[in-house]
Amino acid sequence: MTLNxxxxxxxxxxxxxxxxxxxxYFQQEFGNASSRHTYGITARRAIDKARKQVAxxxxxxxxxxxxxxxxxxxxxxxxxxxxxxxxxxxxxxSAIEHPCVLKPTQELARRSCDRWTMHxxxxxxxxxxxxxAADKAMGEHKPGLVSVMLANNETGVIQDVAxxxxxxxxxxxxxxxxxxxxxGKIALxxxxxxxxxxxxxxxxxxxxxxxxxxxxxxxxxxxxxIYGGGHENGLxxxxxxxxxxxxxxxxxxxxxxxxxxxxxxxxxxxxxxEQGLTDMGASIFGAGAAxxxxxxxxxxxxxxxxxxxxKLDKVGFAVASGAACSSVNPGQSHVLEAMQVDxxxxxxxxxxxxxxxxxxxxxxSFLQAIKTIxxxxxxxxxxxxx
Length: 386
What we know:
CATH superfamily of the largest domain: Type I PLP-dependent aspartate aminotransferase-like (Major domain)
Radius of gyration: 22 Å
Number of helices: 12
Shape: globular
Number of strands: 13
Strand content: 5-15%
Largest sheet: 7 strands, mixed
Helix content: 40-55%
Number of domains: 2
CATH class of the largest domain: Alpha Beta
CATH topology of the largest domain: Aspartate Aminotransferase, domain 2
CATH architecture of the largest domain: 3-Layer(aba) Sandwich
Structural class: alpha/beta
């Protein structure tokens, strides 16, 4: 049985060109980039090239790219690194942030010695940060740090980061955005978003796991999370993962060149998908808001999301259930909770995130599979009630 992969917001298959670029750095060009011999110089040049490729993808200078092991580390580097470099203040995050932003913020506020106060920016029923409410909240509690994701990993809803950045900057705060789900799906420019820091990740754009970056404004002061040999301008010590960084660079170059094409392709697939789901009575979360074009987060009333995910997997479709951002904390999605979705409907949530390799034939087959499964489940439910 061929498995149709509909979970691209979780991770993506490495592009052939990315893998080809990485392969030499596992064996032939295996040098440590800190070494001064030919092997080391070759590795350093490869990292320098990748840094330029990542920088070009979001319109910044290479010196602004700090490589990390993943998006979680990059987000922690901003929150903890910025907090450690300034006096305690108020930290604002949206109510729908990924756990790798939410949890370090909670920990910062929990430690009494730090005296940081955490505030959550509310979202409306479409999953958009309430900009007016955010402005009022920041006016009442002067912010030191602000972090609002560009596109939510569950709903795909895009936030008005630039507007929130204006508010943060007017209060003298540092502003960060987790833009991991935006890269390669929508046009992305660091300067236009008006942020001080931005997180990107390779494995969401057909690159390898184990490579990500924090893009920083040159005026942003950070303390490192990892001390050692002073790699990455002293902000991230540790021998560089050269193959992964090389792959990240190529993936960024491809993502930038393919953004329009990819967006058009997956949007057409999603339109067909959501039409079919709506005809079956599904609710589409965030449907009235601007979203990244590949993401559909839906619920069919009375059909448990986890059950539907398992049954779809058995017939050849890989999708995600409600709490899509964490595999270790099952339960209702905090994103849907923040959107005030009825808990019973939230339990039915399923996320489909489409990619370049998906086809209209796969979407049509998926809709037929959903229809068959739902009819079977409802028939079984009806029999059990009798």
